[in-house]
Amino acid sequence: MTPRRAATGLAGVLLVDKPAGCTSHDVVATIRRATGERRIGHAGTLDPMATGLLLVLVGPAVRLVRYLAGCDKRYDARITFGLVTDTLDAEGSVLTHAHVPEEVLDPAHARDVLAGFLGPSSQVPPAYSAIKTAGVAAHRRARAGEDVALDPRPIVVHEARLTSIDASAPAWDVTFSVSKGTYIRALARDIGRAAHTEAHLSALRRTAIGSATVGQAHTLDAVVNAAHDGAVETLFADPAALLGIPVREVAPADVADGRALPDDPTLPDGARVACVTRDELLAVYRRDQDVLRAETVFATGVRR
Fold first, then answer.
1. More exposed terminus of the chain, fewer Cβ within 10 Å: N or C?
2. Residues catalogued as catalytic
3. For residue range 80-112, what is the model confidence (pLDDT) as tens digits?
């Protein structure tokens, strides 16, 4: 019999180190089967080729996606020059081969090119992406042979730091820190063009989402084993810390019905507050006109 939705009582956030070769949905499906909890989601998709940090939200914690999906992200990427693929990464079909100028191997030149991508800009997302046009994911249209033209989207590149150059590939290893919605595959494409050649993303590892780092994450096998042992809750991360907002200790009765809370004048208008007990995140409130108003209240607290 299929377990009833949210029947397990589990409520928490798992930091998972996604392995290569599976989708983010595959990770969710694996944890769903292991725990018996049907209400599971994730914040921030990783392509099958990519590895690294994936935030998996369990039970009522899925309601945190609105906050966690908007966090800045950090990646270690390898950009390989000389060809471009239809998916802009190593899993795609090669579209074009291109000559690679010798200056691509010059670290000073590489740093100059990367510096040109720092700050706010507009990015054209990959055709092979989950962005929907007319209700259909762009990657489905692209795989059906349609020409997909997506509108540019605003992004911010906070850091683009060269860590090494592999002359044999040739490739650059780069650490990126970027805003929500930034496609590293598209950055690789655009960096190739800025270097007067073509390029694609040949490896990617996500190392951080907001304050969470991949060093804090658990392997998928470890999560599955803990679930089978009835101990998956011991792997939950503190959701209040992940939110990166001020914390207020409250009694459950103070927020159970979403009533307003006394003001905190140290906060700017519009600022959010995580309302917690020692063991649980109970609600997220927002300062509005000298009072704290409920924005998200969890009938079942999210374990800290």
1. N
2. 47
3. 999 999 999 999 999 999 999 999 999 999 999
